[in-house]
Design the sequence.
């Protein structure tokens, strides 16, 4: 009888995702051999705090604080990086690839900024570098884009890319929960990044848009190319007004391949409550993709959390195992063969919802309207919502306008004495 093939792996990190990977590998023990033709064995796990990690595994001797135990072990063929952050993760990944190991990661921070360099190292070494979990958690999206949809020119993608902020907005809008309480709950559920600023300021979603846009448009888009705005300025009043307008506020990521260049952005948006994205709640994510052959597609699932993310990581591990067995590692590497310019955000067109407090006297509304008009901003609706002594709250909805023209108008309005405060500006889908 042929000897059973065992593929040994090393893992960097045993936090939310690492623990999920450990559990999923364990639950797949019986099926691995018939499914893959080999068994996967987790040989070493790198952590900082050994006691904490030892309590999570059956055999504490697999936990180490020494990276060399993994990098210098010739038996380890796959390294799973789930520690997060740029360094030392970057150096460890490059060292593993140069040591002839395949690498799987969930680290969007790294892939969004250094993907090109890491994929070049993987190619040089003829090894796999897979990162399915880095975009939209458990939703299969990188592989579908790079493989199943490879026959398309993908022109546009849009979606909800961050579980933490979607969870917070859902709790604020459906249960009236305070922002801080909802964030704490998301952290307890294991959805948030180690520093949740990355979630609430839109950086995490921006990283995912960069990674997915690179795969979809075959042209490198880095995190630095993506315009990002988070949800920290969204208030209960904005959510209430959105509801009155039949809309829901979501943090959306949008990327388009246009003749003037690639546009890539993340910001809150009011969308019609009947739009499918408006019904994506809690830690769920959803991505819409448009290709010239397939037309519209939609992907939906859990965007964060222990087991959904582990599902994507272990799927990548299994893919590498198959490549090792068929001697074809490095099969799907960098697919960015175009070099498209990035469109400046000021040139992108958006519709806006603006809420402001203005002096409640004759002529003020006309002055506001003329500032918009003089800056090429056309008003679709202007409503006076409530009067508070000397001031009135007004809401303006604009038609589609170049963002730089809108910014010019806001600058002027912000400096006018008759305007007490511009409380919020939110784009409208
Ligand atoms: N949480 C989620 O839902 C998702 C997370 N991701 C990504 O997965 C990665 C991991 O996230 P998550 O599991 O939530 O993070 P955690 O903070 O829960 O876990 C990080 C783990 O890495 C270890 N670690 C961190 N730095 C080092 C270091 N320098 N040397 C050794 N070990 C280290 C930590 O060890 P110790 O505890 O001992 O300090 C801990 O075990 C990140 O890149 C994240 O962006 C991707 C998709 C979803
Ligand atoms: N913090 C991220 C985790 C998954 O990528 C999120 O909330 O989406």
Sequence:
């Amino acid at each position: 009888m042929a000897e059973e093939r065992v593929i040994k792996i090393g893992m960097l990190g045993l936090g939310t995702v690492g623990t999920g990977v450990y559990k999923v590998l364990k639950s797949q023990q019986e099926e691995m051999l018939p499914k893959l033709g080999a068994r996967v064995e987790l040989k070493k796990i790198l952590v900082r705090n050994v006691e904490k990690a030892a309590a999570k595994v059956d055999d504490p001797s697999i936990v180490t604080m020494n990276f060399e135990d993994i990098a210098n072990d010739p038996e380890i063929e796959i390294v799973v990086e789930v520690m997060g952050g740029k360094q030392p993760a970057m150096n460890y990944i490059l060292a593993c690839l140069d040591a002839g190991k395949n690498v799987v990661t969930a680290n969007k921070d790294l892939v969004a900024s250094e993907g090109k360099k890491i994929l070049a190292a993987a190619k040089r070494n003829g090894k796999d570098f897979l990162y399915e979990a880095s975009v939209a958690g458990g939703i299969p999206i990188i592989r579908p884009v790079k493989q199943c949809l490879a026959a398309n020119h993908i022109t546009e993608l849009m979606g909800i890319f961050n579980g933490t902020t979607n969870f917070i907005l859902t709790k604020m809008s459906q249960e009236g929960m305070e922002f801080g309480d909802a964030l704490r709950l998301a952290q307890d559920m294991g959805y948030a990044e180690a520093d949740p600023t990355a979630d609430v300021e839109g950086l995490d979603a921006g990283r995912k848009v960069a990674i997915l846009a690179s795969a979809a448009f075959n042209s490198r888009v880095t995190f630095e190319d993506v315009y990002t705005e988070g949800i920290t300025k969204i208030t209960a009043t904005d959510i209430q007004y959105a509801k009155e307008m039949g809309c829901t506020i979501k943090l959306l990521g949008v990327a388009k391949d246009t003749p003037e260049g690639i546009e890539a952005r993340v910001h809150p948006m009011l969308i019609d409550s009947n739009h499918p994205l408006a019904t994506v709640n809690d830690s769920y994510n959803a991505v819409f993709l448009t290709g010239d052959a397939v037309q519209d597609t939609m992907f939906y699932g859990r965007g964060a959390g222990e087991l959904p993310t582990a599902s994507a990581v272990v799927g990548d591990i299994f893919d590498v195992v198959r490549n090792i067995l068929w001697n074809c590692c490095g099969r799907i590497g960098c697919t960015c063969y175009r070099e498209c310019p990035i469109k400046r955000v000021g040139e992108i067109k958006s519709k806006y919802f603006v809420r402001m407090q203005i002096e409640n006297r004759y002529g003020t509304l006309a002055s506001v309207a003329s500032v918009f008009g003089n800056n090429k901003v056309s008003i679709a609706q202007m409503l006076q919502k409530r009067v508070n002594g000397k001031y009135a709250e007004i809401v303006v909805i604009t038609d589609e306008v170049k963002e730089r023209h809108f910014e010019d108008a806001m600058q002027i309005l912000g400096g006018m004495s008759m305007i007490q405060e511009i409380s919020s500006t939110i784009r409208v889908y």
In short: Residues 142-301 form a domain with the Dihydrodipicolinate Reductase; domain 2 fold (CATH 3.30.360.10). The CA atoms of residues 238 and 424 lie 8 Å apart. The chain has three domains: 6-137+307-325, 142-301, 348-428.
